[in-house]
């Protein structure tokens, strides 16, 4: 039977706190700091039924096997189960890493005791995270905006994104030009090849790597060409003679990649398949539960002897013995203090070929990726040769070229360089080639050069002057952020997907294509934490805390000492939070755009303001590095729409105006100066078909008269038609029914309304309306995915799972890939409490 994850945890709200603790000050956090940080555990509301079922089954059982995952969280779940079930029968701790008959039988025979050190490590981690979140988050609520959150790892991940965006904001691009050459070699294969002019006389031609982040050259005596200078050189080259001056060939070998661990799987699935980290883990979980792969949360790259034998057997069968190394390959994890004692992620059992699994969609794609990577890890090295060639270009006499500063360089010779790489034995690359980020080159990329010899004469074919710009540091993508967090030793493989999901949900980050872009809200939160809680977002401190948790898990550190130092130590959490009243809220939320303009992060959105008091709202989807001084001035110079007088109210004589508001255009009554303070003006949103410039007095009066009473239904209940936050609707008592259009509010009759109420109630507006778009089949389920309009806005659905579109998603531009990500993320969320009849689930 499945416990469906944790069955108890620290209380998440006042309603979960037992009555006898409600008066205690510490009960809010669920941690009694003065009692050696004793945690208060409560059975989660959604797990009470599950626990009841488990206890019921336990009555007739002879033995209890605790078969949760073999990591900190899994060990803690087993410990909590034991504490709540209180079994009177023998209990054993059972672990396995793949769901095959052989693995399960072996696990039953090789049970062990609970590892209390692992449990202590998990409990320490949970208490650290609770104290961090519950003590620091309220500071953000009071100083920046309600409902924000801070977290031990999420805040550091956000800082990484903000730091990268700051680099992009400070970056100044440099323009430079060079010359690309195409040269010919007589009776050679290929007969012509590409090269680059790298030097003119004694001066090397500047390339992108020669400029710093503010666009300045980092070395002297470089020739910085502009378009005119590069074109001059390109025009002169056909008159030169070309001779090979140097040929350098080197053999190289490339070892196979290690089998997947959690983070490398997330990175590679992101690059090759376009999966988010969350989608990768969701699909991997499905494959694990179906017995196709081993456990997917692991730091290990090791393979069991049986797995190595299976992989080597397949290599010989599929590629031949020439691809099989003499000895099995062994891999060592590069992850410091690798926590999980599992194997690498590999196919389970006998490595069933992908085409024979019966899998489809996302599951097939991810399984094939894992299968190929594992097979390749037991193959021979790839072998090849790299060749570098230098070519001397010579003219009969010197001629001058001017650089960007009009400085003249004179010479009668230039150096041209070309390089190529040739595979002589494909080795493991026959099975698998790793993908890379956009600014890197892949292992299988190669440019062929003809066989050239020193002294050989070459012929000119074509010369082009090309312009370039240096580029700012690339933004993080999900794969590169996961790689960076792992490199900094921050967080754990099992947490990265959840971290990215959290910072996106809190509006700290949005996605543009594959790039993760921090919002100005993230800038404000990060600034506050860096200014007043620097230790908590320090990369080294966060990594050190992870290492400390590993020490507890290994039995080499004390839970109490770690928590005491964190909370009460020098610069500890208690000391830091105690002084938050001194925080200047305006300072942390204000950013200078230029001498005249500041950007402010307000409670209701981000805006810019100049010294003259002009304001302009900032589009939440505008990347921070694109808000230049010029754009800020343009936004501020746009005319502000003044309120338009529509007319007067016939009964009171009060003026009616139409204007744009934060939540859209509306009409409102202007109360006289002597109106009582308690008086409230009538206000109504405009229909989508109306604008402040076009709305008439008749329309305005009609809007302000809402709700419209249609009359009493046959049961005596009054029916009204009105406009609300989610669109037009009918209301009868507590029963609301959606209308198809806003115009229906004024046209529908009482009989028409009664006819609507006579129909069975349909949940959601989309039930009556067709899909907004059809996107195609979901790669995971094969079911058709459509976009629909619902009560809370547009959403995607495959008929079973619904996922609301995010703020940055556009209905018209939404892709099937993005829709699949949203659905996979929704499926991966913890299930809601199941009724008793559904509580049982075979492992």
Mind explaining what this structure looks like?
With 843 residues, the protein is an alpha+beta fold. Mean pLDDT is 88; it is low at 764-768 and 830-843. The strands form nine sheets. Strands 7-8-12-11-10-13 form a six-stranded antiparallel barrel. The termini are close together. The protein is built from 22 helices and 31 strands. 30% of the residues lie in helices and 23% in strands.
What's the tally of helices?
A: 22
* Unreliable residue runs: 764-768, 830-843
Evaluate the radius of gyration.
Answer: 33 Å
Instruction: Calculate the mean pLDDT score and round it.
Output: 88
Q: Which bin fits the share of residues in helices?
A: 25-40%
How far apart the termini lie comes to 6 Å
Biggest sheet statistics: 6 strands, antiparallel, barrel
Strand ordering within the main sheet? 7-8-12-11-10-13
The gross shape turns out to be globular
Strand elements, count: 31
**Structural class of the secondary elements?**
alpha+beta
β-strand amount? 15-25%
Describe, in short, the structure shown.
The protein is 30% helix and 23% strand. The strands form nine sheets. The protein has a six-stranded antiparallel barrel with strand order 7-8-12-11-10-13. Strands 16-17-18-19 form a four-stranded antiparallel sheet. Strands 20-21-22-23 form a four-stranded antiparallel sheet, covered by helices on one side.
Itemize the secondary structure elements and their pairings.
Layout: E1 8-9, E2 31-32, E3 38-39, E4 42-43, H1 48-58, E5 64-66, H2 72-85, E6 91-93, H3 101-109, H4 116-143, H5 154-170, E7 175-184, E8 192-200, E9 203-204, H6 227-236, E10 241-254, H7 262-273, H8 277-289, H9 305-319, H10 361-376, E11 382-402, E12 408-425, E13 457-469, H11 478-487, H12 496-505, E14 509-512, E15 515-518, H13 520-532, H14 539-553, H15 559-568, H16 573-578, H17 585-588, E16 590-592, E17 597-602, E18 605-610, E19 615-617, H18 629-637, E20 644-648, E21 655-661, E22 664-670, E23 683-685, H19 697-704, E24 708-712, E25 718-724, E26 727-732, E27 735-738, H20 744-747, H21 750-758, E28 773-777, E29 784-790, E30 793-797, E31 802-804, H22 816-828
Parallel strand pairs: 5-6
Antiparallel strand pairs: 1-4, 2-3, 7-8, 7-13, 8-9, 8-12, 10-11, 10-13, 11-12, 14-15, 16-17, 17-18, 18-19, 20-21, 21-22, 22-23, 24-25, 25-26, 26-27, 28-29, 29-30, 30-31
Helix pairs in contact: 2-4, 4-14, 4-15, 5-12, 5-13, 7-11, 8-10, 8-12, 8-22
């Amino acid at each position: 039977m499945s416990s469906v994850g944790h069955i108890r945890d620290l209380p998440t709200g006042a309603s979960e706190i037992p009555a006898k603790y409600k008066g205690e000050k510490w009960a809010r956090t669920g941690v009694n700091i003065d009692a050696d940080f004793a945690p208060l555990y409560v059975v989660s509301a959604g797990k009470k039924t599950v626990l009841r079922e488990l206890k019921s089954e336990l009555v007739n059982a002879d033995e209890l096997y605790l078969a949760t995952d073999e990591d900190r969280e899994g060990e803690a779940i087993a410990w909590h189960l034991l504490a709540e079930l209180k079994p009177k029968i023998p209990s054993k701790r059972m672990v396995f890493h793949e769901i095959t008959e052989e693995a399960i039988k072996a696990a039953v025979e090789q049970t062990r005791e609970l590892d209390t050190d692992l449990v202590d490590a998990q409990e320490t981690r949970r208490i650290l995270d609770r104290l961090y979140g519950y003590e620091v988050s309220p500071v953000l609520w009071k100083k920046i905006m309600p409902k924000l959150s801070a977290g031990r790892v999420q805040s550091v991940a956000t800082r990484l994104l903000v730091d990268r965006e700051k680099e992009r904001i400070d970056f100044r691009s440099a323009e430079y030009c060079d010359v690309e050459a195409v040269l010919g070699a007589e009776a050679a294969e290929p007969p012509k090849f590409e090269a680059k002019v790298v030097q003119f006389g004694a001066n090397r031609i500047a390339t992108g790597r020669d400029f710093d982040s503010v666009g300045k050259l980092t070395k002297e005596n470089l020739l910085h060409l502009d378009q005119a200078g590069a074109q001059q050189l390109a025009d002169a080259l056909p008159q030169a003679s070309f001779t090979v001056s140097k040929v350098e060939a080197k053999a190289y070998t490339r070892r196979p990649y290690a089998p997947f661990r959690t983070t490398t799987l997330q990175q590679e699935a992101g690059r090759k398949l376009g999966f988010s980290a969350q989608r990768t883990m969701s699909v991997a979980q499905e494959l694990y539960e179906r017995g196709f792969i081993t456990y997917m949360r692991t730091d290990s790259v090791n393979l069991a002897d049986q797995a190595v034998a299976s992989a080597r057997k397949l290599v010989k069968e599929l590629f031949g013995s020439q691809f099989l190394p003499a000895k099995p390959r062994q891999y060592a994890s590069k992850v410091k203090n690798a926590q999980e004692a599992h194997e690498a992620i590999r196919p389970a059992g006998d490595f069933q070929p992908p085409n024979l699994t019966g899998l489809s969609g996302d599951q097939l794609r991810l399984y094939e990726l894992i299968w190929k990577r594992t097979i390749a890890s037991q193959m021979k090295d790839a072998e090849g040769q790299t060749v570098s060639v230098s070519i001397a270009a010579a003219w009969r006499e010197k001629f001058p070229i001017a650089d960007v500063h009009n400085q003249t360089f004179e010479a009668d010779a230039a150096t041209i360089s070309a390089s190529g790489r040739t595979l002589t034995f494909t080795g493991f690359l026959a099975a698998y080639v790793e993908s890379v980020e956009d600014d890197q080159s892949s292992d299988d990329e190669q440019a062929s050069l003809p066989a050239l010899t020193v002294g050989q004469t070459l012929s000119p074919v074509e010369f082009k002057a090309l312009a370039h710009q240096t580029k700012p540091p690339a933004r993080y993508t999900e794969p590169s952020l996961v790689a960076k967090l792992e490199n900094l030793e921050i967080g754990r493989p099992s947490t990265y997907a959840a971290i990215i999901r959290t910072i996106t949900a809190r509006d700290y980050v949005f996605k543009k294509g594959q790039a993760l872009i921090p919002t100005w809200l993230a800038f404000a939160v990060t600034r506050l934490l860096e200014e007043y809680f620097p230790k908590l977002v320090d990369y080294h401190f966060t990594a050190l805390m992870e290492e400390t948790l590993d020490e507890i898990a290994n039995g080499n550190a004390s839970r109490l000492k770690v928590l005491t130092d964190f909370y009460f130590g020098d610069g500890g959490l208690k000391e830091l939070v105690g002084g938050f009243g001194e925080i200047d809220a305006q300072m942390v939320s204000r950013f200078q755009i230029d001498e005249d303009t500041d950007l402010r992060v307000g409670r209701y959105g981000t805006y810019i303001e100049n010294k003259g008091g002009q304001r302009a709202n900032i589009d939440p989807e505008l990347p921070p590095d694109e808000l230049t001084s010029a754009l800020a001035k343009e936004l501020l110079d746009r005319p502000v729409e003044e309120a338009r007088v529509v007319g007067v109210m016939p009964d009171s004589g009060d003026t009616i105006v139409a204007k744009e508001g934060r939540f859209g255009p509306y009409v409102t009554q202007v109360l006289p100066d002597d109106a009582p303070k308690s008086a409230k003006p009538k206000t109504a949103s405009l229909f989508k078909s109306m604008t402040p410039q076009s709305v008439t007095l008749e329309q305005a009066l009609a809007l302000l008269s809402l709700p419209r009473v249609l009359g009493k239904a046959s049961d005596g209940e009054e029916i009204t038609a009105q406009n609300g936050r989610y669109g037009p609707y009918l209301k009868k008592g507590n029963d609301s029914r959606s209308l198809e259009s806003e115009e229906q509010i004024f046209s529908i009759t009482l009989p028409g309304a009664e006819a609507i109420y006579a129909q069975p109630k349909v949940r959601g507006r989309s039930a009556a309306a067709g899909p907004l778009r059809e996107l195609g089949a979901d790669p995971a389920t094969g079911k058709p995915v459509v976009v629909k309009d619902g009560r809370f806005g547009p959403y995607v659905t495959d008929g079973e799972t619904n996922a609301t579109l995010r703020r940055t998603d556009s209905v018209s531009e939404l892709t099937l890939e993005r829709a699949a990500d949203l659905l996979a993320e929704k499926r991966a969320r913890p299930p809601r409490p199941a009724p008793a009849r559904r509580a049982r689930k075979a492992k």
